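Most newcomers find our protein records easier to grasp once they have seen one. Sequence and backbone structure share a record, each on its own labelled line. To make this concrete, we reproduce a full record directly below:
***
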Amino acid sequence: MTYSLFSLAREALRGHTGWKPAWRDAAPKPEYDVLVVGGGGHGLATAYYLAKEHGITNVAVLEKSYIGSGNAGRNTTIIRSNYLLPGNERFYEKSMQLWEGLEQDFNYNAMVSQRGVLNLYHSDAQRDQYARRGNAMRLHGVDAELLDEAAVRDMYPFLDYANARFPIRGGLLQRRGGTARHDAVAWGFARGADTRGVDIVQNCEVTGIDVANGRVTGVQTTRGAIRAKKIGLVCAGSSSRVAAMAGLRLPIESHVLQAFVSEGIKPLIDGVITFGAGHFYVSQSDKGGLVFGGDIDGYNSYAQRGSLPVVEDVMESGMALMPAIGRLRLLRQWGGVMDMSMDGSPIIDRTPIDGLFLNAGWCYGGFKATPASGWCFAHTIARDEAHFINSAFRLDRFATGALIDERGAGATPNLH
């Protein structure tokens, strides 16, 4: 079924009795050309682009729970491409370009809203740093504007510009950045993949990876053995555990990242604002709640919950940025399990095992990368080689020293 104004009007007249499920809840077949392990946004996007761009339709996406039950539904929905380093900039700009045509591409309303992303700066040194990043963005053909304090005041007069410790001096604005509806992105890719013949298998946990003579032959699951010529691992915070089934040890740590939503209020923030003197970012959802987050909890965990010290730290940053936030009640909180790489940048590459491919290490940047991640990973799986756009995201860069350290924090995943 194609979604359109006509189909909406038709179903409204029929009492909405003709809508069909967005995708099939498929049962696993004995064998596939490609298995994608992980039914989040990245895994579904990989399957979608394998079918759409490369004509590979004998594909299954294996999800241990239900579609979108992991980090795809546990993020703060921000999309942007305001990066500094070449390896990151070209990749995230590709993702932004895909975001801009995504809804028309897979015929689903992902609620992509290019409302702008503003990174605030609070000192001369930080201004110079943002000017450098903005210049690098523009050299790559990406939009960037360096704003002074007056320009920021015109946009957001309610911020605390006279804060004694962290006065706001200006910001770096990317107007093409914004937000998207995280669940709808997963549902749209699932529907798009399903209509092209991909099997989406829910409640099918991978319990083992079969390797013979240095090559993968299939997986063991809670729903039986499944053979495959190629396997792509897209397991986010569980990447290390799943890769260990094939004997791989990844340069990744798993950490908890919390996010928060306030009670609904009248329209206040029409874009995305990030606090430059601490790790805090905030936007407003279409339902009126302020959506915000901050640092990871800093300890290794596979639990989808967080600690109170980080809650306090995030609230302190929010109060320093906009004191009015103190009048709001917190509606809910959740945690996602981040796969933090050693340099803070992702991995999209082949592994030393033939036929086994890895997509992991997304740190904070997973949601915004969803379209390009799937597009590049599909190319890597189909062609057995990386595309130029993801060629820097090699697994062996941690051995060769060709790191992509956007924040300059070194081999300390908890700081990225």
In short: Residues 274 and 281 are 4 Å apart (CA to CA). DSSP finds ten helices and 18 strands in the chain. The mean pLDDT is 96. The first helix runs from residue 5 to 13.
